Amino acid sequence: MPQLSSGGGDDLGANDEMIAFKDEGEQEEKIQENAFTERDLADLKSSLVNESEINQSPNTAAVRRGQQGEHRVFQDKHREHLEGVSKQQDGGMYKSPAYPGYPFLMLPDPYLPNSSVSPSSNKVSVVQQSHGMHPLTSLLPYSNDHFSPSPPHLPTDMSQKTGVHRHQSQDLSGYYSLPPGGVGQITPSMSWFPHSLMLGPSGVHPTGIPHPAIVPSSGKQEHDQYDRGMYMKPQMEVKREKEPKKPVIKKPLNAFMLYMKEMRAKVIAECTLKESAAINQILGRRWHALTREEQAKYYELARKERQLHMQLYPTWSARDNYEAGLSGVAGEKSKADWGKKKRRKREKQQDSNTGGKRSAFATFKEEAAPAHLLQI
DNA sequence: CGTCCTTTGAAGTAT
DNA sequence: ATACTTCAAAGGACG
Question: Where is the composition biased (Gly residues) (predicted)?
Fold first, then answer.
């Protein structure tokens, strides 16, 4: 039982979340890069173009894999190094957030109708409002009040939930001063949700808790519903009601995803690029250019997202969404079904390694990242 | 319309 | 224990 194996002191792998940091030498270099000036952008674009040149190799995928693997090995090396730091964080930093500015970052706008964040109230806007916001992200004003020992709105269903297989985070009970009742007793304030959301047709969690993270399993479009659909116009709601879909609870966003959400619009504006694959490459490089502290903010946010997600959906498993779009029913995939996509992907990798057709994106990069971008 | 691309990280399965 | 795979977001491209 993997979930249990990480129990005890581990907090959803929080201790491992600091592993992505670079070594000191590179760190310095990255810190310099981190001054995101126009020059930085030019560098990034230049790098992107260079990458595209590299990627012309038929073994692009393999090369990338190799690089990734290298990087991960490197991360592992630093896992040890950072472990002490991480533990310190669990014991100290997380109990008293090291980033007093961000805990209330994204609360107001989408969840308080027609409200907006006071620009002066935030140090960091972690999630781009223009892109809407991940439902859980938006659930995370990260005030400890939400986990106060006396939850203001305790959904009755939650404590009655049976068959809970997600372990309760030790850290959670420690950090949020949880009552000794377990998951069912921990209930974040539902004041995060706008009333319209509370009444939404799709946002009903198995526990009975309405939540925007639950979206109809209608493929990719669910993303939009995720961000904007929670405030769907009545017409849309009617339409959705007509064709009810099995709700899908999305994975909580990891640190990098949170970072991407925040920075995407910025990069798009700077680059005048819209292609997400290219944007993501830039964001990936920027991510590595972040300082420890900057990354830590997102790791912390991601950690809390996972915590909250686990509280809200104690029975949810990442596996539920594996091929959910194909099965239509989350969590019903058999072990026989499990390998289908896997094999497909393996075949694809073999294809690329044996000089298969070039990706459309490679072509795109050659065309979309021409020299004129370097002049910025 | 569904899938791919591309990134990192979390969590799952397979060996 | 380690390796590998899937999925989170995003939106244009493509079959």
Answer: 1-11
